[in-house]
Design goal:
With 534 residues, the protein is an alpha+beta fold. The chain folds into three domains: 268 residues, 3-Layer(aba) Sandwich (Rossmann fold); 104 residues, Rossmann fold (3-Layer(aba) Sandwich), CATH 3.40.50.300; 134 residues, 2-Layer Sandwich (Alpha-Beta Plaits), CATH 3.30.70.3280. The structure holds guanosine-5',3'-tetraphosphate (G4P). Pfam families: EF-G_D2, GTP_EFTU, RF3_C. This is Peptide chain release factor 3. Keywords: Cytoplasm, GTP-binding, Nucleotide-binding, Protein biosynthesis.
C-alpha cells in the first residue's frame, strides 16, 4: 500500500504511484540545484553537478543560444523521470525566461502539481509571481520550497505574509527553520514531529532525522541551543494560533500551499519536500477533453502533445513531440489514432528521459511523459488515442504581444523562409501571419528575446540570415463567428486581415480603438486573444 493520500482508490497502483510536476521559480532561486538534488535522491544521477550546465547556460542570451544549439541537453531536460521510494516522479521542465511564458503555460497543462521555489532572502520575485498566476489559471496544487536558508534570510513570518498577500493563497508551514543565516541548524518537521539537522560539512548528505514527541520532549534540548529552542517554541505557538493546518483537499484545489524551508545546495529539506510530493501528490488527474473527460484508469490509452521540439538533429529535420499520457497503459509499438487527421499511427520509437539519457520507452502509464520522434505530423494540442475520437481541450494559443515583419537576407530564398517560419509556428515558438495584401510575413511573439532566438535558429537550422523589422501592426486577434459573417467582415477589412499557419483568419491592427469598432459594427463577429490549439 502506498503511503499517500490517494483519494481515488480505483486507480491502478502503477498510476497511483505517479507524480507529474513542474518547478516554477525566479531565475537564481535554486531551481537547477533543487532539480539536481531530486535526481540525486531519486538515484538518477550519482553525483551533484551533472545538470549544472543548464542553469548557468540560461543566464545570458549567447549562452542560451549555446544551450539551444546543444539540443541534446535541453531536450533530455524537458521531462525527467526517476523513482523516489515506491513513487515514480516525472519532472517537467519549464522555460526559465518570461519571454517564453506561452510555452510555460502549455507545459503546465501536462502536470498535476507545481513546486514553487523562492529565495529566502528575496521572497516572492516578479517571475515567481507571473508563473504562479499561470498555475492559478489552472488551479494547480502548489508546494512551496523556501530555499537558501543557510544564508541570511528574511523573517519567516514576513515571507509567509508576502506569499499570502502577493499570491492570494493560504500558506501552512510543513517545517519551521531553527536559527537564521549562520546560526541556522535545521528545521522542525511540523507534519511528522521530527527534528531535521543540517550537515554543513557534506553537501550531498541527507539530514539527520530525530523523532520528537511534541515540543516538550527533552530530546529537543539535547540538539537545539536554549535560545533557539525558546524561539522555536514561541514561533510554533504562533503558527498554531495564526496559520491554517495542512489540508490535502485545500491544497488539491490550489487554495492552500504547504511550505518547506531548506537549502538545496546543502541537500537540506529536499527529502522532506519529496516526501510531501509523494504524500500529497496529487496522483494523475482527470483530463478535460471533448466530448467527455478522460479518466486516468481507462484501459484505452489517450495522450496529448503539449510541446514540440524540432531540429534536434539539424541534419535530419526530425522533431520530438512530448506527449502526456492521460489514460491507460502504453506499450511500445501500440497503434493509436491521430485524432486531428483521423489517421492511424504506430508508436514504434517512443522515448523517455531518465536524467541525462534518453531511452526507448517499452511501456508507460497515465501521468508519464513520452517523446515521439516524427516528421511534423504531430502538433501541439494533438490528441492520440487507442479509443474513440476524444480531443483534449484547454491547450491555448495566446495572441502575441509583439509583432514584427521578417525578411530573408537573400530575396530568392523567400520560399525557404516560409518553410522555416511554418515550422516554428507548428512548434509553438512563434505566431506567423500571412497578410492577405502584399507579400511577406508578420511574426508575433510574447517577448523580444524570442525574435533573437528565432533569427539565430533560422540561420543555424536553415542557413538563412533574416532581418526582423518594425511592423505597422501591434495587435492580433483571431476572428470568430459564423462563416458568412466572418467572410463579409474579412472582405471589407482586407488591409487588416491575415491568416495564421492553420489558415485561421486573424485581424491585425495597431489601435485598441479598431478592435472596439469591430465589436460595435460587426455584432456577429468575435475577436479573441486566445485560440484553442487542435
Ligand atoms: P536557478 O536554476 O533557479 O537559476 O538557480 P540555481 O540552482 O542555478 O542557483 C542559483 C545560485 O544559487 C547558484 O549559485 C547556486 O549554487 C546557489 N544556491 C542554490 N541553492 C542554494 C542554497 O541552498 N544556499 C545557497 N547559499 N546558495 C544556493 P551560483 O554562484 O550562481 O552558481 P555556483 O557557482 O554555485 O554553481
Amino acid at each position: 500500500m502506498l503511503d499517500n493520500l490517494n483519494n481515488r482508490p480505483e486507480l491502478p497502483p502503477e498510476i497511483a504511484r505517479r507524480r507529474t510536476f513542474a518547478i516554477i521559480s525566479h531565475p537564481d532561486a535554486g531551481k537547477t540545484t533543487l532539480t539536481e538534488k531530486f535526481l540525486l535522491f531519486g538515484g538518477a544521477i550519482q553525483m551533484a553537478g551533472q545538470v549544472r550546465a543548464k542553469g548557468e547556460a540560461r543566464r545570458t542570451r549567447s549562452d542560451f543560444m549555446a544551450m539551444e544549439k546543444d539540443r541534446g541537453i535541453s531536450v533530455s531536460a524537458s521531462a525527467m523521470s526517476f523513482d523516489f521510494k515506491e513513487f515514480r516522479f516525472n519532472l517537467v521542465d519549464t522555460p526559465g525566461h518570461s519571454d517564453f511564458s506561452e510555452d510555460t503555460y502549455r507545459t503546465l497543462t501536462a502536470v498535476d502539481a507545481a513546486v514553487m521555489v523562492i529565495d529566502g532572502a528575496k521572497g516572492v520575485e516578479s517571475q515567481t509571481q507571473k508563473l504562479f498566476e499561470v498555475c492559478r489559471m489552472r488551479d494547480l496544487p502548489i508546494l512551496t520550497f523556501c530555499n537558501k536558508m543557510d544564508r541570511e534570510s528574511r523573517d519567516v513570518f514576513e515571507i509567509i505574509d508576502e506569499i499570502q498577500e502577493n499570491l492570494a493563497i493560504d500558506v501552512t508551514p510543513a517545517s519551521w527553520p531553527i536559527g537564521i543565516g549562520r546560526d541556522f541548524i535545521g528545521c522542525y518537521d511540523i507534519l511528522r514531529d521530527r527534528l531535521e539537522l543540517m550537515d554543513r560539512a557534506d553537501r550531498n548528505k541527507v539530514s539527520e532525522s530525530i523523532e520528537i514527541n511534541g515540543l516538550d520532549d527533552p530530546k529537543l534540548a539535547e540538539h537545539v541551543p536554549a535560545d533557539l529552542l525558546e524561539k522555536l517554541q514561541e514561533d510554533l505557538e504562533m503558527v498554531r494560533e495564526l496559520m491554517p493546518p495542512m489540508d490535502a483537499a485545500l491544497m488539491a484545489e490550489g487554495s492552500l500551499t504547504p511550505i518547506w524551508f531548506g537549502s538545496a545546495i546543502n541537500s537540506f529539506g529536499v527529502k522532506e519536500l519529496m516526501e510531501g510530493i509523494a504524500k500529497f501528490g496529487p496522483e494523475p488527474q482527470i483530463q478535460t477533453a471533448q466530448p467527455r473527460q478522460i479518466l486516468p484508469e481507462e484501459t484505452k490509452v489517450t495522450g496529448f502533445v503539449f510541446k514540440v521540439q524540432a531540429n534536434m538533429d539539424p541534419k535530419h529535420r526530425d522533431r520530438v513531440a512530448f506527449v502526456r499520457l492521460a489514460s491507460g497503459h502504453f506499450l511500445r509499438g501500440m497503434k493509436m489514432t491521430h485524432v486531428r487527421t483521423k489517421k492511424p499511427m504506430s508508436i514504434t520509437n517512443p522515448v523517455m528521459f531518465l536524467a541525462s539519457d534518453r531511452e526507448l520507452a517499452e511501456e508507460a502509464w497515465a501521468g508519464d511523459i513520452i517523446g515521439i520522434p516524427n516528421h511534423g505530423q504531430l502538433r501541439i494540442g494533438d490528441t492520440l488515442t487507442e479509443g474513440e475520437a476524444l480531443r483534449v481541450s484547454g491547450i491555448p494559443s495566446f495572441a502575441p504581444e509583439l509583432l514584427q515583419g521578417v525578411r530573408a537576407g537573400d530575396p530568392l530564398k523567400a520560399k525557404h523562409l516560409e518553410k522555416a517560419l511554418m515550422q516554428f509556428a507548428e512548434e509553438g515558438a512563434a505566431k506567423v501571419f500571412k497578410p492577405s495584401i502584399g507579400s511577406g510575413f508578420i511574426v508575433g511573439v510574447v517577448g523580444q528575446l524570442q525574435f533573437e532566438v528565432l533569427a539565430s535558429r533560422i540561420e543555424l537550422e536553415y542557413g538563412l540570415p533574416v532581418r526582423f523589422e518594425a511592423s505597422q501592426f501591434t495587435s492580433a486577434r483571431w476572428v470568430n463567428g459564423d462563416t458568412q459573417a466572418v467572410e463579409k467582415f474579412a472582405d471589407s477589412n482586407k488591409q487588416h486581415i491575415a491568416h495564421d499557419h492553420d489558415g485561421d483568419i486573424v485581424y491585425l491592427t495597431r489601435l485598441q480603438w479598431d478592435i472596439d469598432r469591430v465589436e460595435r459594427d460587426y455584432p456577429d463577429v468575435r475577436l479573441t486573444a486566445t485560440k484553442e490549439m487542435m
